[in-house]
Specification:
By secondary structure, the protein is mostly helical. It contains 14 helices and no strands.
């Protein structure tokens, strides 16, 4: 328990938070074009299950190499299955499935509402305050995502209501799992907890695939294996563990605002890799999102200064 207390009491500077969040966000953003390509070789639930299973096994391998305990303590072990269902089965399953039922614009907007849900949950269950700056940044972020998705908001193939519910469900389950991990204070057992919840959630995903995708097969080409390894190692193992690690050391609501950068990075990757162009609306959306994240960083600086010296707002001399 002493390690847990030390773990949670080690705050990060706003600059280091920003750099580490970029490490989280970059592979997450690259996941979307990788998933788009990979779905040509595998059914969605089976693809998601394979990705998360390999990600969980990779973290367990890291624990073996570092000679760390593979199983978390009892108070955390009981949360493996609930977290697996929330953070892995629902989040990744709905993320992979939603674009098949609704337009890309709706899926993008509702799939990026996680910061809003996190901030509300953090206020209710973690005692975090929703200040004026945070609320303003939240509004700018949503407006930016909406502008970026506006060109495709009229695309309504298939079953738009189901697709919208899946996209919103993915954001909600990810938000609930983030706040839950913050409340658990896993400390030195964070990696083992993260690994086993990925494994547990992937087993459920693969079971659902066997039921709903009985005739689906995976085309094991070299390209697909490369995509799967990238998604499993960088887009799942690294980003999930580092996100949970950051949650233990920083305010959840402020960190969540960085997630608005995911569609921005995704758009930049699409421009570089697929030749897509940035129109005026998307450029405006990018500007709003960057402003929202900048406000979060500046608020972090001012908060750090007040913690050093509440009366003068600067470190004591």
């Amino acid at each position: 328990m002493e390690d847990d207390r030390q773990f949670s009491k080690a705050p990060l500077s706003p600059v280091r938070q920003a750099w580490l969040m970029l490490v989280v966000i970059a592979p997450m953003a690259a996941c979307y074009p990788a998933i788009k390509v990979g779905l040509e070789f595998a059914p969605s639930l089976r693809f998601a299950g394979a990705r998360t299973l390999l990600g969980g096994l990779a973290l367990l391998l890291v624990l073996v190499i570092r000679r760390k305990p593979l199983w978390p303590e009892a108070r955390l072990a009981r949360w493996i299955l609930p977290l697996g269902v929330l953070a892995t089965t629902l989040t990744f399953g709905a993320m992979f499935a939603s674009p098949a039922y609704t337009g890309a614009g709706i899926a993008s907007v509702l799939g990026n509402t996680q910061p809003h849900i996190i901030i509300v949950l953090a206020a209710l269950f973690l005692g975090e305050k929703i200040g004026l700056i945070k609320a303003f940044a939240l509004g700018l972020g949503l407006a930016g995502v909406s502008l970026m998705a506006l060109p495709t908001l009229r695309e309504q193939p298939g079953h738009p209501l189901l697709g919208a519910m899946l996209a919103l469900g993915s954001s909600a389950s990810a938000a609930v799992s983030s706040v839950t991990v913050k409340r658990l204070h896993p400390g030195n057992d964070l990696m083992s907890l993260t690994a086993w919840q990925l494994v547990a959630g992937s087993v459920v995903l693969l079971g659902l695939s066997a039921v709903f995708e009985p005739h689906g097969t995976i085309m094991w080409t070299g390209g697909f294996i490369g995509l799967l390894l990238f998604l499993a190692l960088a887009g799942t193992a690294l980003s999930t563990w580092l996100w949970f690690w950051l949650l233990q050391r920083a305010e959840v609501g402020r960190l969540s605002l960085y997630l608005f950068l995911v569609p921005v990075f995704g758009l930049l990757i699409a421009m570089g890799g697929f030749g897509e162009r940035l129109d005026a609306l998307q450029a405006g959306g990018v500007a709003l999102i960057l402003t929202a994240v900048a406000l979060s960083v500046f608020e972090g600086w001012f908060g750090a200064a007040r913690r050093f010296n509440p009366q003068r707002g600067r470190p004591p001399t």
